[in-house]
């Protein structure tokens, strides 16, 4: 099999909540970083399948519009919003299914142009209530570290207010990858902001092949189940600290937000 652009990143997730009550945790995890044009090749791995059950698998319906042919779906999404040049190569950083199960609080798409420059990053945020929102943010090419920001537009945690903003600091996939998110809120409706949450994933590169997949299965046993269990365990700890429950809209939804080339902001249901 020819060498793949797709790979693994082994590392840690850290969450540090600053207020109104402090809470911090660190978990060892790994992610796959998939070149969406290599899915057919990846399907030939012994322990990794596309759209079918295996020790590890990737199901296109878990992402984007929930339909197959994710590469075409994401390219259409970018093109329809004025970013056709960012469709040359698309890499997705996410958790795979392990023994058929996964949950991705955040899936990150790195979208490159024909000069191999990172032009757009898509942050696909999912909550445990079945909703999904994609933040489409432009990235300046030829920079080792990408900094972006946007306002929060989807309910995620029962203990996190909606009137907050995300600041992203990204080291795109290479020998290592880093996704760092700082969530802030305004102080007493003034211009000043203060941090409420800092969340990071940092990982080191590893090849994606049968040997490495079998290795991470035993290094990170039932990891995706532990991700979901960890979400509820940390929520229980915050509830015991008597944090205020935030109201949420009922129903499931998929949506996207972006800013066009002229600087106008848009929001659309998918």
From TrEMBL:
InterPro entries: DUF1365. Residues 248-270 are annotated as: Disordered. Residues 253-262 have a biased composition (Polar residues). Pfam families: DUF1365 (PF07103). PANTHER family: OS07G0153300 PROTEIN. This is DUF1365 domain-containing protein.
């Amino acid at each position: 099999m020819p060498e793949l652009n797709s790979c693994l990143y082994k590392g840690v997730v850290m969450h540090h909540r600053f207020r109104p009550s402090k809470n911090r945790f660190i978990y060892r995890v790994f992610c796959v970083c998939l070149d969406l044009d290599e899915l057919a090749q990846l399907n030939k791995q012994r322990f990794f399948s596309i759209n079918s059950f295996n020790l590890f698998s990737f199901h296109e319906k878990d992402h984007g519009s929930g339909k197959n042919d994710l590469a075409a779906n994401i390219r259409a999404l970018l093109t329809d919003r004025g970013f056709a040049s960012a469709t040359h190569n698309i890499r997705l950083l996410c958790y795979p299914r392990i023994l058929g199960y996964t949950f991705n609080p955040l899936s990150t798409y790195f979208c490159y142009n024909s000069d191999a420059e990172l032009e757009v990053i898509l942050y696909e945020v999912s909550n445990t209530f079945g909703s999904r929102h994609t933040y489409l943010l432009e990235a300046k090419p030829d920079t080792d570290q990408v900094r972006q920001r946007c306002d929060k537009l989807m309910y995620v945690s029962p203990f996190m207010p909606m009137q907050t903003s995300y600041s992203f600091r990204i080291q795109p996939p290479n020998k290592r990858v880093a996704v760092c998110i700082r969530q802030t809120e305004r102080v007493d409706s003034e211009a000043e902001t203060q941090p409420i949450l800092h969340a990071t994933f940092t990982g080191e590169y590893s090849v994606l092949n049968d040997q490495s997949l079998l290795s991470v299965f035993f290094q990170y046993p039932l990891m995706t189940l532990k991700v979901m269990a960890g979400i509820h365990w940390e929520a229980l700890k915050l509830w015991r600290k008597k944090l205020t429950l935030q109201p949420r809209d009922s129903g499931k939804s998929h949506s996207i937000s972006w800013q066009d080339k002229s600087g106008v902001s848009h929001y659309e249901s998918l």
